[in-house]
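dude i think i finally got it to work??
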Amino acid sequence: MIKKEYGLDVILIDKFKGYENDNYFIKTDKDKFVLKLYSDLTLKLILKAENEFLLFLQKQDKKNYYPKPILFKKGGYVKQVSHNGKPILIRMLSYLEGDFIAECKVNENIISSLGSFLAKFNLLTRNWKNSEIKARDWEWKIESVELIRNRANYISDPFRRNRVIYFIQQYRENILPVYNDLRKSIIHNDANQWNVLVEKDKIAGLIDFGDISYSNLVNEVGIAMTYIAYDKEDVLYWSGILLESYNKILPLKKEEVESLYYIIALRLCMSVSNSAYTKLNQPNNDYISEGNENVWNMLDKWILLGPIQVINYFLKVTGFALKKQDKEKKYIDKRQKYLSKILSLSYKAPLVMEQSAFQYMYDVYGNTFLDAYNNIPHVGHSHPIVVEAGKKQMAKLNTNTRYLYSKINEYAEHLLSYFPSKLNKIFFVNSGSEASDLAIQMAKAHNANDQIIVMEEGYHGHTQTGIEISDYKFNDSKGIGQPKHITKLPLLKNNTSQIIDSEIEKIKKYFISTGLSPSAFISEIILGCAGQVPLSKDYLKKIYSTIRSFGGVCIADEVQTGFGRIGSHFWAFESYDVIPDMVIIGKPMGNGHPIAALVTTEEVAESFEQGVEFFSSFGGNPVSCSIGKAVLEVIEQEELMKRAFDVGNYYLKQLMELKSQFNSIHEVRGSGLFLGVELVNTDYKPNSNLASLIKNQLRESNILIGTDGKHNNVLKTKPPLCFSKENVDEVIQRIEEAINKFN
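look at this
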């Protein structure tokens, strides 16, 4: 075929690896070429346009930096022929000598040379026009966001897939609004390490123009930065060298520099999404998956670094002034001007947060914080599936339960499938406090009793009823004191059968002697504000049995421990082999969106139905239900309960190893990703000073944890369930350093 079409006598043919079309190295006795074969006949006009572009470059630049199209014997540069009985398109290009960047030991000179080369290339081609290229919209054009979003669905690992969807979402939010402000040009669009040639630390050529695109000019440097940095440890340093050298030749606008974080992220997402899609059709093509682990590693680093830090770095490199941020004190002063001082702030040096993603939070100054504390963003901060569900429903319908709509039924059915069949009625509200309040109302309606039994150091909300049933609140030095209708059970630290039986007998004697009957017993299974203290299984079972024997109902507060957080079970009460009469859920239910619920039995619900109408303006609205259902789906898809179990057990083991090293750690307790570390001094008294020091020391190391307990001497860690073992190692290292510093 080569002899017939080009009149060349071939002495060597060797096939290159390729993504879609077939490429061959051709050697004659006089020269070297690249033969390209295409099975997609619809590419003919695009290939003609590519040849025109290469011919334009030949006229503009005589240094042989670019491949030259080779004429057929009968003229023309692209032709349809028959090959192995099938019609194909063929073309031939000159072969350029040099080493690929991928084959070199990359240094600053090579990267700087690439930045300068691409800038000169873009200056050379900025005024070249072609209608076919301008109209082209396909999977390697960064602006083809919807196509990439669809292809992301082919990524088999849901944990990774959702990170790709997050970055696609971020591109939409941050780049599409400023798209018209970004300069446009026809660009090479794929200056990766296998398309750039090097000789003596200088760029010697640019090949493979198959992806040329009419696109944002800044995409050219963004794509090159992606491939230069994605296999490096310090991605900012290496990408910054390329950006700086490019900008010296072709200065970028500030909005173009600010877009690079999202452009680089989307290019990485395109790579893995297109690979996943193409792999279905070419399962034996190893070339398709090459470099993917580097892509995933850089996406992880991009989340770790965060947009503010990266954008600030790129702005500095290109000589732009950074936006001046107010100091923390100014934020505090303004806050206190409008808000009450009763709202507390975490840490001696409070944080000014701006953005977040998964297990990380970013402050306005560009610092990234590992969130080992906040359990409300249960499946991860700004999780794209949750965000997408809320936005989609918000644009469609949001109303209240006096109207019929499918979302509330779908969500209720899905959520109740996680409960024992006895717990089959659900009341949607907006917060755990509201759910606690409702639970007490329903208990009183069910048995017409007033006495409520609570647990020492328990917490159930900030409403008046919530405060009355929360020892953590009413027993505070500034609290209202224990109300007369409240009976408090001790949080037993020594859970022997004899002590438990003694406490149970006291309860029985109290109700028999007074003639009173309990309306309800309410408690968390693992008490969070007490410092992650699990109740004894025997104790809880006997309390439930006793309360029910006097006609009361048992309420489990799962606001903090529910939705798979403890790892072994979806609800903490399941691990105790008890079934409550009511379950309060909230906090993680909406991943930060205000939604909560009370789940109960048909019997209790029917008693409540005899009273006045119950109505919550926002409880169970379609937006909240869509978000709640999305949270459940993410937990299922990403197997986050299993992750809480695996990472939680690893976390527990590492904390226990710390305990063996330091006498100041009295106890490590909890389950899954709901853990507490109790600290004491040398005479085993609560050491709140050490707890405060560790919390604030970790804050200085950009790690968020909390403290709690009656004496504020318990470190609390209850991170988003996407937390990793590597994250655990970082927390452990910093706690160890802080204790050593204290000692």
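The chain is about 40% helix and 15% strand.
im so relieved honestly
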